[in-house]
Design brief:
The complex is a heterodimer of chains A (about 160) and B (about 180). Chain A is α/β, with parallel strands linked by helices. Chain A has a domain of about 100 residues: Nucleotidyltransferase, domain 5. Chain A is about 30% helix and about 20% strand. Chain A contains five helices and eight strands; from the N terminus they run ααβββαββαβαββ. In chain A, the strands form two sheets. A five-stranded mixed beta sheet of chain A has the order 5-4-3-6-7, with helices on one face. In chain A, a hairpin with a 2-residue loop joins strand 4 and strand 5. Chain A is elongated and about 85 Å long. Chain B is α/β, with parallel strands linked by helices and about 180 residues long. The longest helix of chain B is centred in the last third of the chain and has 26 residues. In chain B, strands 4-3-2-5-6 form a five-stranded mixed beta sheet, covered by helices on one side. Chain B is elongated, with a radius of gyration of 29 Å. Chain B has a domain of about 110 residues. In chain B, strand 2 and strand 3 form a beta hairpin. The chains are: A alpha/beta (about 160), B alpha/beta (about 180). At the A-B interface, helix 2, strand 2, strand 6, helix 5 and strand 7 of A face helix 2, strand 1 and helix 4 of B.
């Protein structure tokens, strides 16, 4: 009896919260590391069209993005409101796409080149003319894997 | 004298957790784990100089879909609403020679898509989506009758088998101007 009653009167000892900051810091560092701050500032407004038959994109590091849309309000004074292409951090013309693909390839491992995908992020109001031009350029650059970026949703 | 012996008083670290929590919540909120989704397609390689003649394809095995500047669809010579395209494509692919003017079998069936430079991107994606949906539904039906499971749940080899029955053949023509500019 004595054996079990020994510290019955003391009640539950308080759980030490001294290691709580450590745990929280661990979580904090995890989120700090995984957070990807948007590396490109968008100069074009892009609202991708909706689709239902979509697939998730794999291997984000192997994806290069092409943005197409009309320039944002701030830029419309100097660039007008017609749809434009954005590569990395600047507006570009259709002829620069081949060069863009080449530099994207250079920064990757040689083995990974066949798996590289080009994601076309175009606004839903964009006309197909510009998209067709881009597709032709991509064909010339032999970057044949493409992905039309879409949102999930029904019409 | 007395205070010297005591040394520096210990800093209360009790609020450290609060500070850390604050930062944690900030990063939790700002983190966007956005998964990029989209319709994957493969472009045909550029035609080579000395190209051998492409194999001849019967006109009845081609399902021609044209989109004009006004986002209207002309399917096999007839005006069609996008909402009907999925069923139309399914009927064409699954014809199996029933209708002599439609495809012989799903393997030979080719969908030819042509759009105008003035076509809206949204319409184009919608058409692509409907065509992909037609194929996906057919594949799903086939896998249900063959394996009793949905296409998405099949193993890799099973998927391959189904894909062999319904190969997705969507061909896009070289850009042209249909229906003039406007």
């Amino acid at each position: 009896m004595n054996k079990f009653r020994k510290d019955g009167k003391k009640g539950m000892p308080a759980i030490s919260t001294a290691s709580l900051p450590d745990i929280v810091f661990m979580l904090l560092f995890f989120f700090m590391v995984t957070t990807v701050m948007r590396e490109t500032t968008l100069f074009v407004t892009v609202l991708t069209p909706k689709a239902t038959e979509i697939k998730k994109m794999e291997k984000k590091s192997l994806v290069s993005y092409i943005y197409i849309g009309s320039p944002i309000k701030r830029m419309q004074a100097s660039y007008g409101s017609a749809a434009r292409i954005q590569l990395n951090d600047a507006f570009a013309s259709v002829d620069e796409i081949q060069e863009f693909i080449a530099t994207e390839r250079e920064s990757r491992d040689e083995k990974e080149i066949p798996y590289m995908t080009t994601s076309i992020k175009a606004d839903e109001t964009v006309k197909m003319g510009i998209i067709t031009d881009i597709k032709q350029e991509l064909r010339k650059a032999n970057a044949l894997k493409i992905n039309y970026s879409t949102r999930k949703g029904n019409y | 004298m007395a205070s010297k012996r005591r040394g520096l008083p210990e800093i209360n670290a009790g609020s450290m957790a609060d500070i850390a929590f604050l930062l944690l919540i900030f990063f939790l909120v700002t983190t966007t784990m956005d998964v990029d989704t989209g319709i994957a397609r493969k472009l045909p390689p550029m035609p080579e100089e000395e190209q051998e003649k492409p194999p001849e394809i019967h006109a009845k095995n081609i399902y021609v879909v044209l989109i004009n500047t006004h986002n209207q669809l002309l399917v096999e010579g007839e005006l069609m609403d996008i909402s009907q395209l999925r069923d139309g494509a399914k009927r064409f692919i699954n014809n199996n020679g029933m209708d002599p003017s439609s495809s012989e079998n799903p393997e030979k069936a080719i969908i030819s898509l042509q759009n105008d430079r003035g076509t809206e991107y949204m319409t184009y994606i919608r058409v692509q989506n409907e065509l992909a949906a037609a194929y996906n539904e057919l594949r799903n039906d086939a896998s249900l009758t063959k394996f009793g499971e949905h296409y998405a749940d099949l193993s890799k080899t099973q998927k391959k088998e189904i894909r062999k029955i319904y190969p997705q053949k969507i061909s896009e023509a070289e850009p042209k101007n249909i229906g003039g500019d406007s």
